[in-house]
Design a protein that fits this description.
16 strands; alpha+beta; 292 residues; Chitinase A, domain 3; 2 domains
């Protein structure tokens, strides 16, 4: 009997130590909920949870019109912040903040759920705090860290009213910048001729040499061609706004035009050219050369 305890008891004691040293870790659901609850309290947000999903929300502007379906192509505007402050995206003129495609394709999942099941209708605004498991998960993405719960405000624009929405944005931009004396075309383009020019006339198939600057309506310049690096190509290779407005001047002339997306890169934008969805654009340009 003494021999038995000599060899068995030390093993039993070792097992007891291992068991005692084991530590229980909170699940990601518990961690998310703790972080979200603390964030809501600290920021004094008036939010409620949606059906035990871990998503907390506040309807800022109720939607109207038809119900939203996952098969609908919807224009979305988003502002995104991680609760820890490591990521903030408030600029509405980039790919993180503008979306136009099927709702069912959109990530993160929490936004799809919020738009489809909470807001339900178009033309509304919803603010949500989304747990990391319904955002970008443990790995995050190229910008957002892993296990990051997100504070997201999403505006659902009725695609049938997108033209009016963009026109309102252009008018607000012009008022903010103190721009006046512009003419509006039936296509929704605003333009102002600074110098009509005195040289050759410009036709749609003319080859033009042009100095220009292109900006988003937040003032960020996305492209330019300076005097020492002017751009030469046929006018019919440019966006519709240029094809419509540039022939109004002659060689040596200059103008400014502000165009909605319908006469630029379209409501879906053009990722290869760095154009987010439904982006209105501001161009200033001078035509320095014309070849027929």
């Amino acid at each position: 009997m003494k021999q038995f305890f000599k060899y068995v008891f030390p093993g039993f004691f070792l097992i007891s130590i291992i068991v005692a040293c084991e530590k229980e870790y909170d699940s990601i659901e518990i961690i998310d909920d703790k972080n979200i609850t603390a964030y809501i309290q600290a920021n004094k947000l008036n939010m409620v949870e949606y059906q035990d999903s871990g998503i907390y929300y506040e309807v800022i502007t109720p939607g109207s019109g038809a119900d939203v379906a996952y098969s609908d192509q919807v224009p979305l505007l988003l502002t995104i912040k991680s609760l820890d402050g490591k990521y903030t995206s408030l600029d509405t003129f980039n790919f993180s903040n503008r979306y136009y495609d099927y709702l069912g394709y959109f990530n993160p999942e929490g936004v799809r759920i919020g738009v489809k099941e909470v807001l339900k209708k178009k033309s509304g605004v919803l603010r949500m705090v989304i747990p990391s498991r319904l955002a970008f998960g443990r790995n995050g993405n190229s910008n957002i860290p892993g296990n990051a719960s997100l504070d997201i405000k999403v505006t659902v624009v009725d695609k049938n009213k997108l033209r009016e929405y963009e026109d309102f944005g252009i008018k607000k931009y012009m008022a903010t910048k103190g721009l006046s004396g512009f003419t509006k075309t039936t296509s929704g383009i605003y333009y102002k001729i600074a110098d009509p020019g005195t040289g050759s006339s410009i036709a749609i198939d003319s080859t033009i040499t042009v100095e220009y600057s292109g900006k988003f309506l937040n003032g960020v310049e996305f492209d330019k061609a300076t005097a020492g690096n002017a751009y030469t190509t046929q006018l019919n290779g440019f966006i519709e706004a240029w094809k419509e407005i540039v022939p109004l001047i002659k060689q040596g002339g200059s103008l400014q035009l502000i165009t909605p997306s319908s006469s630029a890169y379209g409501v879906q934008g053009d990722r290869t050219r760095g154009m987010p969805a439904f982006s209105s654009l501001d161009f200033t340009l001078k035509v320095t050369g014309v070849k027929q």
